[in-house]
Amino acid sequence: MIVVKKEKTGKWVVTRFVKEHNHPLVVTPANSRRSVLLSQTPDEKDVKIRELTAELQRERKRSATIQEQLDMFVKDMEEHSSHLSRNIDDIVRNVREIESKRVVSSHS
């Protein structure tokens, strides 16, 4: 056990120190994941690292596939939008031509 106090100068000073303990010196981690990692042997940790690395690689491949599908979808949407714009432009042009022919024929 250690007892410390802060002096007026701002320094911390040990005021009492007991070397023997009547309890085991065990640090309990605040994070349960950390406690699992601390309780594992080095071999178990290596296995866990390999498992997590493999999972990460699978998720990266899956993410790349999804990104590729999304890119293709966006490209298709842009092409469709462009096609619709051309069709609308053609319709507007045709309507204007018809209207101008009506105006010309009504003046004749």
TrEMBL record:
InterPro entries: FAR1_DNA_bnd_dom
Residues annotated as domain FAR1: 1-26
UniProt-listed PANTHER family: FAR-RED IMPAIRED RESPONSIVE (FAR1) FAMILY PROTEIN (PTHR46328:SF14), FAR-RED IMPAIRED RESPONSIVE (FAR1) FAMILY PROTEIN-RELATED (PTHR46328)
Protein name (record): FAR1 domain-containing protein
Originating organism: Davidia involucrata
